[in-house]
Amino acid sequence: MKIIVTGSLGNISKPLAETLVGRGHDVTVISSDPKKQAAIETIGAKPAIGSIADVDFLTDTFKGADAVYAMIPLSFTEPDLGDYLRRMAQNYAKALKAAKTKRTVVMSGWAADLIKSENVENEFDDLDASITIMRPGSFYTNFYQSMDLIKGNGLIGKFLTLRYSGLWALLTGKTGLLMGNYGGEDRIVFVSPKDIADAVAEELLLQPEKTTIRYVGSEEMTCNEAARIIGTAVGKPWLKWILLSDKEMLQGLKMAKVPEKLAKTLVEMQAAMHGGKPLENFHRNNPKMGKVKLADFTKEFAVAYHQK
């Protein structure tokens, strides 16, 4: 099969492309970074350098493809995240329609349907194609964003961090923000990008007659249980995951001069997870859990942590 993979060589797209190439498929990887061209070729895929903001580029790349994996990278520099997501989803929909692509797997999130302003899944409703929406849980790799915070305080999501770094620094990865107004004893489904990639690889080869939704997870636990596993791996078994109120979170974002609309969206996203509805929906769909557990991930996390 001829398969297009978006997302460059990211946490999901790289193992996905490697898996598909290993199974003998003709794989093209879209990247906006020309410097990634050689790395894409090294894994046996064809590079297509361009932007998902360019509908003509997408259309030309999708032509003749049997299937497309479509993902939209999150942007915390956009003042209106919902508008950005809708524009990119519409670009995909226009290109898929023009290219007459018959099979598409769309990356979403496990709480996406609960955030009306950010839910772009319906942008694909009018396509004459087989569509699957992927709703993965919270990525293990998000813990990398909290590495400096763990090093400095032994707390995840600690509000006092605002005093010395600013929440915007956390959001941009300088200090690392994993969670804010969800955490503590909230139960969360965590997921390995490798398990997501395996699930996407399976879906790309299917051809359901109607739009389907697939939830993906690797392990379910409380945030504090996850913090303890991460903490133990790096020599801080007392690590806690501090839960902020919605008001505290919004106040912190405003203090850090995050655009008001974006700040409210971030608070809404995390509040939905704290409320438990995403977990309820996950259980209702009862997907099979992936193979990679958090303890497995902590091995690579600990190496990165001690090298930093």
Keywords:
3-stranded mixed sheet; alpha/beta; Rossmann fold; single chain; globular; 12 strands
Q: What this model shows, in words?
A:
With 308 residues, the protein is of the alpha/beta class. It has one domain (2-307): Rossmann fold. Helix content is 41%, strand content 16%. It has twelve helices and twelve strands. It has helices at residues 13-22, 37-42, 55-62, 81-99, 147-153, 167-171, 193-204, 223-233, 246-255, 260-275, 277-285, 294-307, and strands at 2-5, 26-31, 46-49, 67-70, 103-107, 130-136, 138-139, 155-156, 187-191, 212-216, 219-222, 240-241. The strands form three sheets. Strands 3-2-1-4-5-6-10 form a seven-stranded parallel sheet. A three-stranded mixed sheet has the order 7-9-11. Strand 1, helix 1 and strand 2 form a beta-alpha-beta unit. Helix 3 (55-62) packs across helix 4. InterPro entries: Ergot_Alk_Oxidoreductase, NAD(P)-bd_dom, NAD(P)-bd_dom_sf. This is NAD-dependent dehydratase. It comes from Mucilaginibacter corticis. Residues 7-202 form the NAD(P)-binding domain.
> Which sequence of strands runs across the widest sheet?
3-2-1-4-5-6-10
Mean pLDDT: 89
> Which bin fits the share of residues in helices?
40-55%
CATH level-two architecture:
3-Layer(aba) Sandwich
CATH class: Alpha Beta
The protein's oligomeric status is single chain
Order of helices and strands: EHEHEHEHEEEHEHEHEEHEHHHH
The count of DSSP E runs of length 2 or more, i.e. the number of strands, is 12
| Proportion of residues in extended strands | 15-25%
Please tally the helical runs, counting DSSP H or I stretches of 4 or more residues: 12
* Shape by Cα distribution: globular
Q: Mind telling me the C-alpha Rg? A: 19 Å
CATH topology description: Rossmann fold
CATH superfamily: NAD(P)-binding Rossmann-like Domain
- For the record, the count of structural domains works out to 1
Distance between the termini: 41 Å
Pfam family, one: NAD_binding_10
Protein name: NAD-dependent dehydratase
Domain NAD(P)-binding: 7-202
